[in-house]
């Protein structure tokens, strides 16, 4: 280090740091929220957005490219792809949210038991999580669907099951870090009940930093659901879950690009919006 | 090249439409043969050229090259390159000599005596003779695969002389010669068989025009020319060794990737040129498409009559008349498949169309359902009876081809119109098989490739209802009709071809009367190839690819 | 492993005394032993889960063996014969124990669905899958690092844009991405082969990209987050106060700390890469363990699936150990949090 050089003023250093910090652009969270709101609306009230029924076929108009009549074109059975995509939002978002919730729920269970439990308990839980982690998740999902039949909800559970080890591990680490934090010690000194400390301090402090993980999980779940669809183990036709649309449209990828492009973009848009929103919440949480 | 007497006069234009219509097979063979005619080739020489490597992609993975151990369609479809059979079946179902020069059937129909050709040698040097045939029959009889089922009524083989062998049956079976012509019942080198099951999967030896050089269950198979090959079955276009020096089979299961491989020039030809890509094939002038219906049970929707509501014949027939197969053929099958009104495919011997049993007629379907008492309607518009909704579940295999997935969904819509709720359930291969043999399904799509109408006995005879210890059945398709059983048994025994034809026509009619299945379409072998490929053809016994006559334009 | 221990304890102990060294060696041995033991336990658990799961799912292996896919008219006698031949009629517990015993001896047995020794199947297909996964992971790291560093210097807009691009690439289903790449590079441009031959380098490009792109997006997200934290940390502040350039702070100080969580995450990506390989191998018709796995699941070949899953688990355990130690090396401070 060059001692001759005058040290830069602290304020300048802090400003520099500010510039580094990747605060999302101000409009991004708003946009993400708007996208998710539209998707949620589509999931809950598809009939208000879709001009046609998702299952009605007009066999005189098969594989039509996008037009004003059919915004996303028509599929090989003459169904309106836009209407199918709108109606598919329900299943797709359900898979995304449910799978993540299941993964997070199981992950919290294992993570908190392991993080707070004694050595033996922690060891046992950690080994269990390790086993599930080491088990290729696609095999787990395939076997689960084979036993319980396929459909949007079994897909959600299967995907959630294969996600939970990742959550469990991160949560356990967070719990172990947080439980020794000073505010916990202070709370214990103040004579708060363990339940109070767990619910009011530990859970929020462990879970808030993981918010981005959760929102990312939604996108990842939808993608895993789509992969299962590609392997023929997703939701059964004529459901219009986006992964299924993508998987069945892939057969026509050379002649009818619109069958895969739009569902693919919807999956990506959902994932990006959910993550952007998670980021915004996370950073607001960090520097209120 | 000299025209073979079996072939009709050539000169058919190799246009797509000609081939795509359900033209009689001889027209197809002619079209293929016409590849070497001057009018077909624009710039390439019209004389076959020896040499070169053909790169050929197929849609299914071959797990074992010994078709007796693993008698699936993928293995059967590749076996023509390295195996030959005792006899050859032509496009009319007639049996011709192949490895057997001639044969005699005893009057009681129980003994077949074959006189073998003396100039055939297996590619590993083992001579082909009566001992070899006996070794093969013994091998098949102790095997556990479907090949064993093909020779169900064979008792034993006896060597009568160096080149004379007798095959004895337990009871007369008019399908015996057809079975011996089936690609999954080949003649293999006894030396190769002796190397053990595992080894024979990757290095079998036959008398065919190519021999196996390398095999990998995921990548593919490499064949090299059998230089000692002299003469093929009657329909081939030349004699002596094959033209191609080497053949590289690649297994490309992904439909889009297979097409990409052809378009990008990574392979010269593909099998499994799926119907969804029709537009792409039509737009690409460098791609030629040939198709032919495979033999056996066609793609049909089968109704399990042991499960409600299919116990009622009227409901079964209502299903059959409600579904609009014609529209599906136009849309899902892109107009490339002709209507089919029989359980067996259009190329199967004694096939006869009986449209009266299967035609689309919504009014009739409604009338039948009214008559069956399904007169109530629920809030969603579905028919009810006694508070119960009329409906059933279609069991769809996860690996089902897109055209059939579309057809099932279209059927669902058509049935909704008559107030019938069809749900769709998807199962993976093994679960689907378990549900089929356990008779736990309600409606299923099925097809069985076999070069003989006697496949109907294996599937539809009540003997298939026999229950195994684990509760599964011998056959996945309960028809359970004594009249049909009797007809099927008679057909198996019938020695006279005309009598056999009459009986099999009655069988097809009886199946129509019972209303247990809805024929959708033939199963097709669909090939697409680039201009450098000449002489590509299908062996008529099962309409699988034969590469013996194929040659590549030089300079490619 | 002593260097790891050395690094780890350098902070705690002012000087490395002989006592410290002795303690360090004992600690290392102890850690090695526990890690080995838990790895074994994980493998045991994985094999058990596979066995139970494949026994619960419907589907009769005997019929699958007999039919070769079709299997009509197979008699009870034949089915029994097959069950005997493959030991399928033994009590379940016996089947399970004998499988454990065999696996313990390194004997994987015979796959009825592939008609081959499982040992030689693994030998043949492990290489291509490993090559694919390792190359993809390396490629993902390169992409992620380059992208994060580039966008980190570009100000607020670049950083927001970067976040979107990362999320977008993490949001691409493998099979769709693969198909798009084939369409672009094989059919349109004809630069790369649509079919990935083993041993061909151009054939490896698209499968690797297909696996690497989503993984890179995910890695970049983690890197960006932890880099942001590190740049706010006191040590970055003091470095800046000392007058180090921003690149210097970034590369010399922040990156070292920021990289640790991404390394830890890479180990679990390695597990996910195996699952991704199942899809990618079938899209590009590439031989590998992923397709063996699918074949085994389809054919209810317990022995085969268990063997592949065991190998995948072993790889995962090794990747974890490697990541653990790498983290200790890169950022000794981070080790204390584990």
UniProtKB/TrEMBL annotation, chain A:
Membrane-topology annotation of the record: Multi-pass membrane protein
Q: Which domain of life is it from?
A: Bacteria
Q: Decide whether keyword Ion transport is in the record.
A: no
Q: Transmembrane residues, as ranges? A: 27-49, 93-116, 128-147, 153-171, 210-232, 252-277
Which positions fall inside the ABC transmembrane type-1 domain? Answer: 89-278
Q: Main localisation, per the record?
A: membrane
Q: Where in the cell is it found?
A: Cell membrane
- What are the protein's UniProt keywords? Cell membrane, Membrane, Transmembrane, Transmembrane helix, Transport
Q: Which family does it belong to?
A: Belongs to the binding-protein-dependent transport system permease family.
- Return the protein name: ABC transporter permease
Print the organism lineage: Bacteria, Pseudomonadati, Pseudomonadota, Gammaproteobacteria, Pseudomonadales
TrEMBL record, chain B:
The source's superkingdom equals: Bacteria
* InterPro entries xref list: Peptide/Ni-bd, SBP_5, SBP_5_dom
What Pfam families would the database entry show?
A: SBP_bac_5
Q: Enumerate the subcellular locations listed in this protein's record, separating them with semicolons.
A: Cell envelope
Domain (Solute-binding protein family): give its ranges: 94-464
CDD domains, sorted: PBP2_NikA_DppA_OppA_like_15
Keyword annotations for this protein, in alphabetical order, are:
Peptide transport, Protein transport, Signal, Transport
Q: What is its main location?
A: other
Concerning its family, UniProt says: Belongs to the bacterial solute-binding protein 5 family.
The molecule here is called ABC transporter substrate-binding protein
The organism named in the record is Pseudomonas typographi
TrEMBL record, chain C:
CDD domains registered for this protein in UniProt: TM_PBP2 (cd06261)
Q: Which InterPro entries match?
A: BPD_transp_1_N, MetI-like, MetI-like_sf
Membrane spanning residue stretches: 36-57, 130-152, 172-192, 204-223, 258-284, 304-323
* Membrane topology reported for the UniProt record: Multi-pass membrane protein
**Protein name (database record):** ABC transporter permease
User: Which family is this sequence assigned to?
Assistant: Belongs to the binding-protein-dependent transport system permease family. OppBC subfamily.
Tell me the ranges covered by the ABC transmembrane type-1 domain, including all copies. Answer: 126-327
Q: Which UniProt keywords apply?
A: Cell membrane, Membrane, Transmembrane, Transmembrane helix, Transport
Q: Quick check: keyword Transport in the entry?
A: yes
PANTHER family given for it?
Answer: DIPEPTIDE TRANSPORT SYSTEM PERMEASE PROTEIN DPPB-RELATED
> Is Transmembrane there in the keyword field?
yes
Organism (species): Pseudomonas typographi
Location(s), subcellular: Cell membrane
